[in-house]
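quick one, 205 residues, struct below
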Amino acid sequence: MATSTEHAVIEALRAGDEDAFRALVAELGPSMLRLARHYVSSAAVAEEVVQEAWLGVLRGLDRFEGRSSLRTWIFTILTNTAKTRGVREGRTLPFSSLAAQEGTGPAVEPDRFLPDDSRFPGHWAVRPERWEGAERLLARETLDVIERAIARLPAAQAIVLTMRDVEGFDSAEVCNALDLTETNQRVLLHRARSAVRRALEEYMR
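---
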C-alpha cells in the first residue's frame, strides 16, 4: 500500500515535477540497475532496461492506484521489462520455470547433519561457524567474496537474494514483483543464502 509520502511523490510526478523525478531516479536507479544486470548479458543492456522501465513508470503513473508501495510498483515494471529483454536475448527463461528448476536437491550438504540412526537425527553434525570480528566481515575483500558468490548463483536465486538481502524488500514485495508464490520465494532465498554462506565459510577458513 502506498504511503502518504509516496502519494505526494506520485502527485508531483503527475504534475511534471522534474526535481521529484530526478530524486526518485537517484534513490532507486542504482538498485534497479543492479537487479536488471541479473537478467541480461551486459551492463550496457541493463542500463537500457532501466531507462525503458522509467519510461514505463512515467507512462503508467495515471493508472497507478496505490494498492502496492510505489517502490514495489516500479520494481514490478523493471522486472517485467528485464524479463522481456532477457527472453529476447535468449538468456532468460520465464521466471516461474527458473524457480521450478532450482527448487530441487539439498541446499546444504547432507553430511552436515546427523544421520537417521543417530541420537539426534537431522541436527547439525557440523555447525555453521561463528565469525568473529565485524571489521573482517565488512572489509572490502569480504564484500567482494559476497558479490562474486551472488554472481555465480542461478538467475532466480540471485534476483531473489538481491531483492531481499541487498535491496531490503520484504517477502510479499518480492512475490508481487516477481509473480512468485511464497513457497518458491522462500526456497530460492534459502538456497541462495546457503550458497553465499558456503562461500564465506571457505573464505573465513
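The chain has two domains: 4-88, 95-204.
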